[in-house]
Amino acid sequence: MVTRERNAAGIGMTSQRTRDRLVEALSAQGIEDKRVLDALRRVPRHLFVDEALESRAYENTPLPIGSGQTISQPWVVARMTELILENGVPERVLEIGTGSGYQAAVLAELVPEVYTVERIGALAKQARERLRQAGLRNCHVRHADGYEGWSAYAPYPAILLTAAPETVPEHLLEQLADNGRLVAPVGGSGYQELVVVDRQGDRLIQRRVAGVSFVPMLHGER
Length: 222
Ligand code: SAH
Hints:
- About 25% of the residues lie in helices and about 25% in strands.
- By secondary structure, the protein is an alpha/beta fold.
- It has a 7-stranded mixed sheet with strand order 5-4-3-6-7-8-9.
- The protein is globular, with a radius of gyration of 16 Å.
- Bound molecules: S-adenosyl-L-homocysteine.
- S-adenosyl-L-homocysteine binds near residues 103, 119 and 217.
């Protein structure tokens, strides 16, 4: 299939003004970190959804991205990114659940290297292409089961899950660096707690920060 290059700058419902309005709404809803707000202002979310949905890309809502998956709501992306940056900018981040690639793109604006893992091959391929179109070269997409993490670049000072496991996967905690932070939606289907786990040596300190709703983290590749 030939994909034509899309307009990253945007016009009309994908214009900078429309993006600015979304950022103002997020700020009114408690997103305070200016670095994060600026990153959301810069990243063309419309490139990460199908062209048919482009005009809705700057609504504060999740949208379908194919293969039964969704691009996360901007508020959730912003909040999780704030939590990743809270103790300073990590030198690299591991994301589990690439999906559209949008969360990875927001991270790539703020963090030197982003490693992201997606279990669905078609989505991994599409995200790679979209990140390229957005001009982000510091994002590395891998098609694999995220329960294994990505050991080649471990340990990670920050790990972010955008699919929900029932409990925090052991393998991922093993790949979390000392003084590192893991952010994940944890729980059963439909509703989960957004959890922050901070590693201090052998100690893991866990707290809950919000109620969220993510697709489940599933086992195996397809
Ligand atoms: N971060 C994405 C939203 C992801 S939706 C975005 O910004 O668009 C969750 C994604 O996690 C889906 O694409 C789903 O296929 C993927 N996923 C689910 N279980 C996974 C696993 N074990 N490993 C890697 N990816 C997984």
